Amino acid sequence: MRTLQKISAGVALTALLSAAQAQILIGQTAGFSGTVAAGVQETTDGAKLYLDAINARGGIHGQKIQLISLDDKLDPQLAAANARKLIEEQNVSALFLTRGTPPTEAVIPLLDKYGVALVGPSTGAMVLHRPVRRNVFNVRAPYQREAEKAIAHLVSVGITKIAVVHADDSFGADGLVGAQKGLDAAKVKAVLLEKVDRSRPDFAALVPKIAQSQAQAVLMIASSTAVAEGYAALRAAGSTAQMATLSNNASAGFAKSLGANARGVIVTQVFPSERAVNLPLVSEAQDLAKSRGKEVSPAMLEGFAAAKVLVEGLRRAGPKPTRERIHAALEGLQKLDLGGLEVSYGPDDHTGLDFADLSLLGADGKFRR
After folding, report:
1. DSSP tag of 58
2. Which one of 27, 107, 165, 177 has the fewest CB atoms closer than 10 angstroms to its CB?
3. Rounded to a whole number, what is the distance in angstroms from the first to the last CA of the chain?
4. What DSSP string runs through 151-201?
5. Helix H segments across the chain?
6. Residue 19's pLDDT is what?
């Protein structure tokens, strides 16, 4: 009898240990080093605020979520290699928070091959929205919407001599389409359209062209490092043009890199103000951040919102969240309330949110609306 009791106790203990060790593996490949490192870290920190809170409450159906993050340095080839490792070797259930248009495009063939969902890519490239990518579930709004809104604002305040500088890659080209839509709508022609190398922009050659164009404003669609260096070069040359950039640079790290040039820079945003505590999404993020001695930035809010979508997809996928069940659960999300913002998906729509706004950097590096 005692032997039987010992065996039963042993089986029960093993079951408890197995349950405690059960995890849902989620993979991430992003540029944790290089030109977008600051933004990537902040976005990931925002996601972890929510994921850690969920894990502290017991996880999803008794399983903790483990985020496995690999550095791809914003390199598409390395992003694809990382994604392959995460999918084939780590056997992750889903991918999450990739960063950048070319790296995200590079992982799509693997998503399609293995039926793995990617939730919340930190890029607003239209190529991820139209045509619908079966395995990509966007959370944030497209870049084209942002660029169009930035141009509309500049024209509304009387600025008509606008230069558009964009990275020589799919991200830059995508943002340019949005900027051109804004220019066409306002019946304004850009005084300069110029592309720069995504890795090594030559600002010594660019600055004189901008000066010659007599641009009143410069919209720069590029990485945070490139934009900060470009704006520094323009200011050093005596330019007083209004500077503007997109939400890929909506991080505290970017603001810090601008230094004295931060004041007055327009940064488009794809989430409400991180100080809009009247919204449950923001107040929840603020409370969790304060408990860790952190301050919420726009980039952190993006990661936080993406994590909420991921968690809801995992929850609805059930106790055994296979890749197929996760995909079905995500595609079935309708009017998911993130805390003042709603996300809906369907077979013909994986866009997520359509929110776009503008912010202005103060001399203290804080984003203001």
Report:
1. T
2. 177
3. 72
4. HHHHHHTT---EEEEEESSHHHHHHHHHHHHHHHHHT---SEEEEE-SSS-
5. 2-21, 37-56, 76-84, 101-114, 143-156, 170-186, 203-213, 224-236, 252-258, 280-290, 298-316, 323-331
6. 39
Give the SS3 label for residue 367. Answer: strand
Q: Work out whether strand 357-361 and strand 342-343 pair parallel, antiparallel, or are unpaired.
A: unpaired
Please indicate whether the domains covering 2-141+278-354 and 143-269 agree at the CATH topology level: yes
CATH superfamily label, 2-141+278-354: Response regulator (3.40.50.2300)
CATH of domain 143-269: 3.40.50.2300
Please write the tens of the pLDDT for every residue from 132-176: 999 999 999 999 999 999 999 999 999 999 999 999 998 999 999
Domain positions in the chain: 2-141+278-354, 143-269
Is 110 a residue whose pLDDT tops 50?
yes
Q: Which two tokens stand for residue 21?
A: 């060790």
Q: Kindly indicate the confidence band of residue 11, based on its pLDDT and cuts at 50, 70 and 90.
A: very low
Provide the pLDDT for residue 369: 85
pLDDT mean across residues, the chain:
93
The enclosing H or E element of 218 equals strand 217-221
- What gap in Å lies between CA 277 and CA 224, rounded to an integer? 27
Q: Could you tell me the sign of the dihedral formed by the alpha carbons of 145, 148, 150, 152, in that order?
A: negative
DSSP bridge partners of 95: 27, 118
CA distance 105 to 128: 8
Q: Would the CA dihedral through 260, 265, 268, 271 be positive or negative? A: positive
